[in-house]
Amino acid sequence: MRVSKLTKSAVIAAIMAMAAGCSTTSTTTDGGAAGVGGSAQAGNGTNSYGVSGGAVSGGAVVTAEDLKQLRTVFYFDFDRAVVRQEGFTDLEAHARYLAQNPAASVRLEGHADERGTREYNIALGERRAQSVERLLVVNGASANQVETVSYGEEKPAVLGHDATSWSQNRRVELKYLSK
Amino acid sequence: MVIIKRYCVALLLMCVAVVARAELVVEVTQGVEAPTAIAVVPFGNETGGALTDDVAAIVQQDLQRSGFFEPMPRDNMLGFPVRRDEIFFRDWRIAKMDYVVIGQARPVAGGEVSLRFELHDVLREQALLSEQVTVARDGLRDGAHFIADRLFERLTGLKGAFSTKIVYVTAEQLSAQRQRFRLQLADWDGARSTTILESAEPIMSPVWSMDGSKLAYVSFETGKPAIYVQYLATGRRERIQSFPGLNGAPSWSPDGNSLALVLSRDGNPEIYVLDLLTKKLQRITRHYGIDTEPSWAPDGQSLTFTSDRGGQPQIYRLDLASRKLERLTFEGNYNARGRLTQDGRFLAMVHRSSGGGNGFDIAVQDLKTGRLDILTRSGMVESPSIAPNGSVVIYATQEGTRGVLSAVSLDGRVEFRMPAGSGDVREPAWSPYLR
């Protein structure tokens, strides 16, 4: 149990490294590589795996009822497509539910804030949806249970034009198509 | 089934081509230092009936909105000459006019109207233009734009773009969950706007074919993005074969035979060229970064596109024959959606200065000298589209919390705004010269 969790953490760290490597230059790849090796380094965000913030933790069976407790919107930094750590626990639970319910499927809708051009933001929204998809698949969901679509900046969650609104619009919404 | 139904609804809507109330009004917010003084005298009317449009008023408005001219208000005119021998040049000289325009509407067989117009140089007391154009009785607005084009060309040396059209997208929030997107077609000045597509899902990236007969755009009406081609004359619509992932950013080749577009079917946004006759798809870019917003050079030899392969979005040019890749933009940390002028010399783009905070503005780069000029200071602009005569860039910006259209001359001297009547207006696309 503990072991599998650690492995999972390592996998997540690997994904983070991959995602980070894609979107930024140099240094982050080194930090990520250390994470894969299992050393919990402070500063690169790989040291708090023991903390379970979500309502559903561990390897327990995730029920449809449990799903209601899980977050379904995951937020991102500007021009970044790396899933923030705050969403890991809940995404793992979603993945476990999908693994335990092969008939279930989700749609991941990627979004961007209004800054920058529309077509570039569509691409960014897709990258974000793909980051979440990878986390689900690595944690046990099957690729054919997950579909992604990007709306870019076309469907903002909040209509404001300030930093707070932007931060709420840079997101991936996870929606169950069937449970 | 739902898809088919939606498709039918959309088709129906297109057939009806809902004539919406004119949504856009252009206001000149900044003009040239010394615009030319011109008087456009109300046209005489010998058609024996009232005319639906005031031709001289439309001509006057076109000239004023170009920023090159400062027309004389009608109330200040001492007389309304219709024929040359009725012009008292001394009066117009005292009124400090450089030019005076007169004209007359006359009936011709078949119910059409002939518009005769003359341009006179006030100082030299000389006729510079004396022409006529015949239009349908409900086509007076077309006649007026034609006259404005002729006057503009005679006086500035630039081909006028007053007879061109624009398309743009509007979005309205009907309720927390429901939105209404419309693809609108209008005269360059926003008049006579009609809805050519309406959808509950996003419509994006409209572009004109070079012959002005059709549009390509992205619609999410099936729940996934797909590229459509729509013929303006018939409303007929075709969906380009779509693939999993992104299907976006269409751009017509100058010969109209190909579409450049963006697909992420291989996991990552890449640029492809689709041959519309053979339906063959050719992959153009190969990089793990985002490659998007392809745009053909007017000579059809190369594509410009946006890529973040260097860490931030910048504009690149790929020569199609040699596959040689060249980075075009270096100033600023965000340069995207490049559009070339018809002569291929200037690149208009969305630009963010390095260390300049969050502002996105329109910039133009002279590809010959490398010089980059920032044309706007609003900080929240996108979607530049260049007039076919290369004089003006239209773009989307924000006024308060609303998206509006604005335009700026390529030299940055003239700026005007097109406030919308309703909804969020975005993604203007300027037509080529029509007919």
TrEMBL record, chain A:
Q: Which domain of life is it from?
A: Bacteria
Signal peptide region: 1-19
| Keyword list, A-Z | Cell cycle, Cell division, Cell outer membrane, Lipoprotein, Membrane, Palmitate, Signal
Name the Gene Ontology biological process terms.
cell division
**Which residues belong to any copy of the OmpA-like domain?**
63-179
Supply the PROSITE patterns for this chain: OMPA_2 (PS51123), PROKAR_LIPOPROTEIN (PS51257)
Q: Where in the cell is it found?
A: Cell outer membrane
Q: Can you supply one Gene Ontology CC term for this chain's record?
A: cell outer membrane
Q: How does it sit in the membrane?
A: Lipid-anchor
What assembly does the database describe for this protein?
A: The Tol-Pal system is composed of five core proteins: the inner membrane proteins TolA, TolQ and TolR, the periplasmic protein TolB and the outer membrane protein Pal. They form a network linking the inner and outer membranes and the peptidoglycan layer.
Purpose of the protein: Part of the Tol-Pal system, which plays a role in outer membrane invagination during cell division and is important for maintaining outer membrane integrity.
Q: Which family does it belong to?
A: Belongs to the Pal lipoprotein family.
Query: What's this protein's name?
Result: Peptidoglycan-associated lipoprotein
Gene name as annotated:
pal
TrEMBL record, chain B:
Q: Kindly report the protein's main subcellular placement as a broad class.
A: periplasm
Alphabetical UniProt keywords? Cell cycle, Cell division, Periplasm, Signal
InterPro entries xrefs: 6-blade_b-propeller_TolB-like, Tol-Pal_TolB, TolB_N, WD40
Q: Where does it live in the cell?
A: Periplasm
- The source's superkingdom equals Bacteria
Supply the name of the protein.
Tol-Pal system protein TolB
Q: Which residues form the signal peptide?
A: 1-22
Tell me the subunit arrangement. The Tol-Pal system is composed of five core proteins: the inner membrane proteins TolA, TolQ and TolR, the periplasmic protein TolB and the outer membrane protein Pal. They form a network linking the inner and outer membranes and the peptidoglycan layer.
| Any single biological process term in GO | cell division
User: Is Methyltransferase a UniProt keyword of this protein?
Assistant: no
Q: Where does the TolB N-terminal domain lie?
A: 25-127
NADP found in the keyword field: no
Origin species: Marinobacterium halophilum
HAMAP family per UniProt:
TolB (MF_00671)
Q: What is this protein's gene name?
A: tolB
